[in-house]
Amino acid sequence: MQSESSTVFTDVAADGIKTLYKTEAIKRSEEVLDVSYRLAYALLRGGEHFQGYIEVKFSLTDASATSDDIFLDYRGKELQSLVINGQQVTKGTPFHDHRIYLPKEHLQAGVNNVNIRFVSAYVKDCAGVQYFKDKDDGEEYLYSDHEPASAHKGFPCFDQPDMKATYSFLALAPKEWSVFANAP
Question: What's the rounded Cα separation, in Å, for the pair 108 and 70?
Fold first, then answer.
């Protein structure tokens, strides 16, 4: 893997809403196969944002390897680095309209590997990584809701229910916090 530079991509259309249209979802689920995620969150105090890292592995069909519209869904704050198949993306605007477009010159038919360092905002609407500060005990509490259509508020992913994936997850948190998961 090449070294990471200080390139930061922010979603210039972050206030707008981009919908995943049925035709896009059907096309993407036909072209993108065998998805897996390795996800890590660095959970931070204060209720504003947290940092993350994700490795996305997937296979592309022969026809989709030259497509301009392979993208990950992501409604986060910024990308601190984007590396596709060992090549760091430093040019263009791959992150817009709540999507991370994967430039076709970095993709290949067969297995692809995308590594992203990102910053996401905590949410207050229960969809994503929810932050709450209890007024009685003064403690900070977090929980995540990463069901389809809300997972992309926490991390970059192919966020549609017909694209199942395996994943591993690591949470880094202040030592005073307890971290629980509902899966083995």
Answer: 11
